[in-house]
């Protein structure tokens, strides 16, 4: 509307300027064609000169040529002014067509039904533009918008800044009210399903809420995915909601049955038998005893410590009556990508969820359900951001005061950090892994293969779910960065090593340890004097 009014006001001025320009050019032309005064007349040939006739003809021809060229120049200038005026007019029309007045379309109070329909159509177009029903191709790993996860009590946020905690109660009123509203709407939607008689309805409450994830795309809206307990132990209800910068809209209400969804945990390994024993304790408790729908594939490189690893695996199998495992031995140099790729392709059963794992990872049964709920063949892959543990010797000071492993796994800024630069732990269906082309087997040693696979998924039409999870931990261990690594791999390894040790504050206390001790000594001496 503003463009149309501006154009109407501008048009008379442009026409007036064009008329003034034409008049000015006409006056100049008349002055140029007026005979010059006596003092300025050209020297004419003398009357009795034999060349008088030819001289007059030459002068007249020259003046006629000058006038003709001047007229042609004026016509060109007028044509240019007309073309410029027409171009400005077309530009204004295009801008009006490209940016129609939204008030005319959506807030036409004289036609409320049409206004409501247009508004609803706009909001639904926001859902279509957002990454709700399917993924979009992204240029790099930095273009992905991560989710944040939450429960009834806490929010697990990734972009924490320097003054915020990785896990906190939603104390900010806007965030608390937002999540409460979403949970209440989801509960209301579950208690009013479409096409189900009220006699069969189960009454859902907020206590049935398990966990949720959400993310905001700045130009579209906020997407929420909430999981509730289902009718049986392995059944869940998933509600997908979307806030397109306006009222939350129900996008989907579906039953999710995970009772028969098997997870194949693939672990590449070379040596590290003691770490594998610790891993199997976690696997037995969480994977076998609590979850029960799990398979383990160990891809072992070399022969050193292999018998010890096989013995640990066989002892767990006997004591827990667990037969769902596969042991693959490769006589070659360790390559994480090669091990995961071989383990994934070795599977011959039905389509299965693959969980690419490392031996220094601790997971809970709740995480395994998150792994299932956030993967869907042909649609979604899951890239959880795990919580990485700091060096317990630095955190707790003395070896005697270090608590048990389960007591160490607390999400606080003093105990660890969200490993947002790591992409190695991932869940996806085997069919999606095979279709995407698997790992780059030319990458050897440590690092790089996980980012390469992550980029493949980003460049596809699959939706990548990237969110911090509360049930997946990277256990601290001393990291060795070998000289054989490429410069890029060595840099990544050293970055990971530095990040693993302690928080900024704790490392600062170590750096300034001597200064702190000197200060305490001075205070002690000062108190003795007084």
From TrEMBL:
EC nos: 2.4.1.-
Gene Ontology, cellular component aspect: Golgi cisterna membrane
Gene Ontology biological process terms, A to Z: chondroitin sulfate proteoglycan biosynthetic process
A GO molecular-function annotation: metal ion binding
Pfam families with a match to the protein in the record: CHGN
Chain ranges passing through the membrane: 7-32
Coiled-coil segments on the chain, per record: 71-98
Catalytic activity: 3-O-(beta-D-GlcA-(1->3)-beta-D-Gal-(1->3)-beta-D-Gal-(1->4)-beta-D-Xyl)-L-seryl-[protein] + UDP-N-acetyl-alpha-D-galactosamine = 3-O-(beta-D-GalNAc-(1->4)-beta-D-GlcA-(1->3)-beta-D-Gal-(1->3)-beta-D-Gal-(1->4)-beta-D-Xyl)-L-seryl-[protein] + UDP + H(+)
UniProt keyword terms in alphabetical order: Coiled coil, Glycoprotein, Golgi apparatus, Membrane, Metal-binding, Signal-anchor, Transferase, Transmembrane, Transmembrane helix
Keyword Coiled coil: yes
Sequence similarity: Belongs to the chondroitin N-acetylgalactosaminyltransferase family.
Designated name of the protein: Hexosyltransferase
Gene source species: Helopsaltes ochotensis
């Amino acid at each position: 509307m503003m463009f149309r009014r501006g154009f109407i006001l501008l048009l008379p001025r442009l026409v007036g300027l064009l008329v003034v320009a034409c008049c000015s050019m006409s006056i100049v032309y008349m002055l140029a064609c007026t005979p010059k005064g006596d003092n300025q007349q050209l020297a004419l040939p003398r009357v009795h000169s034999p060349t008088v006739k030819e001289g007059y003809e030459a002068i007249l021809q020259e003046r006629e040529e000058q006038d003709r060229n001047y007229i042609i120049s004026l016509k060109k200038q007028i044509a240019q002014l007309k073309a410029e005026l027409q171009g400005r007019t077309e530009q204004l029309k295009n801008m009006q067509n490209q940016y129609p007045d939204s008030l005319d379309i959506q807030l036409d109070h004289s036609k409320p039904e049409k206004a409501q329909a247009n508004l609803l159509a706009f909001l639904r177009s926001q859902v279509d533009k957002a990454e709700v029903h399917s993924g979009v191709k992204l240029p790099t790993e930095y273009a992905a918008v991560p989710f944040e996860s939450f429960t009834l009590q806490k929010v697990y946020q990734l972009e924490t800044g320097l003054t915020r905690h990785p896990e906190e109660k939603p104390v900010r009123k806007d965030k608390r009210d937002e999540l409460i509203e979403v949970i209440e709407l989801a509960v209301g939607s579950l208690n009013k399903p479409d096409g189900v008689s009220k006699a069969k309805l189960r009454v859902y409450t907020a206590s049935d809420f398990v966990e949720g994830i959400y993310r905001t795309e700045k130009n579209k809206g906020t997407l929420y995915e909430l999981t509730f307990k289902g009718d049986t132990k392995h059944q869940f209800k998933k509600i997908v909601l979307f806030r397109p910068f306006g009222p939350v809209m129900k996008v989907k209400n579906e039953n999710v049955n995970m009772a028969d969804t098997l997870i194949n945990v693939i672990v590449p390994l070379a040596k590290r038998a003691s770490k594998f024993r610790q891993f199997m304790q976690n696997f037995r408790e969480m994977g076998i005893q609590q979850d029960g729908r799990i398979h383990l594939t160990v891809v072992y490189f070399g022969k050193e410590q292999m018998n010890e690893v096989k013995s640990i695996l066989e002892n767990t199998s006997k004591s827990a009556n667990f037969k769902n495992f596969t042991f693959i031995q490769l006589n070659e140099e360790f390559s994480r990508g090669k091990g995961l790729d071989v383990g994934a392709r070795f599977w011959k059963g039905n389509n299965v969820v693959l969980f690419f794992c490392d031996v220094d990872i601790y997971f809970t049964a709740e995480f395994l359900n998150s792994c299932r709920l956030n993967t869907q063949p042909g649609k979604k892959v899951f890239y959880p951001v795990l919580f990485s543990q700091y060096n317990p010797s630095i955190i707790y000071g003395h070896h005697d005061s270090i608590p048990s492993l389960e007591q160490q796994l607390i999400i606080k800024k003093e105990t660890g950090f969200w490993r947002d630069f790591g992409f190695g732990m991932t869940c996806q269906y085997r069919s999606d892994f095979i279709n995407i082309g698997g790992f780059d087997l030319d990458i050897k040693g440590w690092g790089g293969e996980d980012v390469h696979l992550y980029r493949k998924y980003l460049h596809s039409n699959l939706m990548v779910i990237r969110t911090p999870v509360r049930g997946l931990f990277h256990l601290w261990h001393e990291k060795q960065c070998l000289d054989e690594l490429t410069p890029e791999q060595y840099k990544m390894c050293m970055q990971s090593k530095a990040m693993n040790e302690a928080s900024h504050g704790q490392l600062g206390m170590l750096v300034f340890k001597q200064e702190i001790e000197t200060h305490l000594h001075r205070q002690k001496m000062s108190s003795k004097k007084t």
